[in-house]
Amino acid sequence: MKLSRLKYYLPRMPSGIYGRAALILLMPVIALQFVVSFVFIRRDLEDITQQMTYTMVRELTLIRNEVTQAEDRAAALARLDPMMGPLQMSVRFLEAGAVPPDLIHFEDFSGRIVRATLAQSLPEFLSIQLPRTKVLRTVVDTRHGPLEVEFSRRRVSVAAPHQLIVIMVFFGILLGVIAMAYMRNQLRPIKRLADAAEAFGRGRMIPYHPRGATEVRAAGAAFVDMRSRIERQIEQRTLMLSGVSHDLRTPLTRLKLSLSMLDDDDAKPMLQDVTEMENMVNAFLDFSRGVSTSAMEEADPCALVSEAVDSWTRQGKNVLLVEAVGNRPVPLRVAAVRRALDNLISNAVRYGTRARVSVAVMQKSLRIRVEDDGPGIPDDLRGDAVRPFTRLDPARNQDRGTGVGLGLAIVADIARAHGGTLRLETSEELGGLQADIVIAL
């Protein structure tokens, strides 16, 4: 069997770091307790019980020899009476058919050892009774019939055979709890680092200061530096694109004023070029803003999608909300999600004749879907479709619009800022593009 197949037979590790650390800490302790308990029971406890039982076998043999020398039961009891005091025993004869069966409780491990030793060392042994008291009764066969001998249980087994196991388990649990408390303090900085990284991946900033062991502090400091560099990069990108786009508005406005003085026939193609440039500038501004124009707030995705669909419907577009599941508020950047939804619907009605929108708020995720009946996007071009400034002429009929290749890039950027992703597939119902914004909650 290959070593890789062993994982199917091993217990699954917990997914959290606390569970794994606890398992790593407790498994050796539990294994050690099992080994010590097994060695103690199989060797020490069993050997001591056998040695004590052998002593009782010699005394039972002596009693049986005295009974054998007597003429009848009365004489036998008379011969045994002076011996019972020093031996701390009591005896009585039983009828031949009144021999009780063995009585050994399930958890009585030493009692089974006593019975096995008596049966092996004393051929006349008939039965043994070990009630939940401090006495032991055994029946041996004699010349005058079955003889029941009663004596203290402690003469064949130790007083507290489980004492070592109980003490070991108690201190094992106590030390395990103490170790878990210290381990929790050591793992808390790692958990805080994971929470800060997860929040930053979803576009949220939570306070974080590196703490803990040297390695954890080093990882935390590296995360803080990385977060600062990413923030500076985003800020620089936003400032650059915003500045360029803002500077372009002034010459575009002058061009519009100059073209307004020309004849309509002469100015029409140039006005079209100016309009296209304005659309490009607006797209650049939307891309540069990204998700920085709105903060996280509790919002109902179903209401947000319904308002967007109604807005497009009032413009005379064939947009229909086909499903809205799970009306509950979730943390979103409302303006950014609305911009992403508008971009998807805009693409759907531009490259197709109708759009179908659905939203589903599940327990751990949010899914917003927009489908159209357009030409769609081939599988090998979907990765390029979400890249900035990428125009897929063969796939999306660019002659129908004046896009600059930023619509899906903006949607993907907004989805990533919420800790989600943009998935592009083929619509099963309409045959065009199916765009899903999936955000983990």
Number of helices: 11
State the order of secondary-structure elements, H for helix, E for strand. HHEHEEEHHHEHEEHEEHHHEE
The pLDDT mean sits at 81
Q: Low-confidence segments, ≥5 residues, pLDDT <50?
A: 394-402
Distance between the termini: 42 Å
The CATH class assignment of the largest domain is Alpha Beta
Rounded to an integer in angstroms, the radius of gyration calculated over CA atoms is 43 Å
Strand adjacency order, main sheet: 6-8-9-11-10
What does this structure look like?
Helices cover 55% and strands 15% of the residues. It contains 11 helices and 11 strands. The strands form 3 sheets. Strands 6-8-9-11-10 form a 5-stranded mixed beta sheet. The protein has a 4-stranded antiparallel beta sheet with strand order 1-4-3-2. The protein has a two-stranded antiparallel sheet with strand order 5-7. It is rod-shaped. It has 3 domains: 139 residues, Sensor histidine kinase RisS, periplasmic domain (Beta-Lactamase, 2-Layer Sandwich), CATH 3.30.450.300; 68 residues, Signal transduction histidine kinase, dimerisation/phosphotransfer (DHp) domain (Helix Hairpins, Orthogonal Bundle); 147 residues, Histidine kinase-like ATPase, C-terminal domain (Heat Shock Protein 90). The longest helix is centred in the first third of the chain and has 53 residues. Helix 1 runs antiparallel to helix 4 and helix 4 packs parallel to helix 5. With 441 residues, it is an alpha+beta fold.
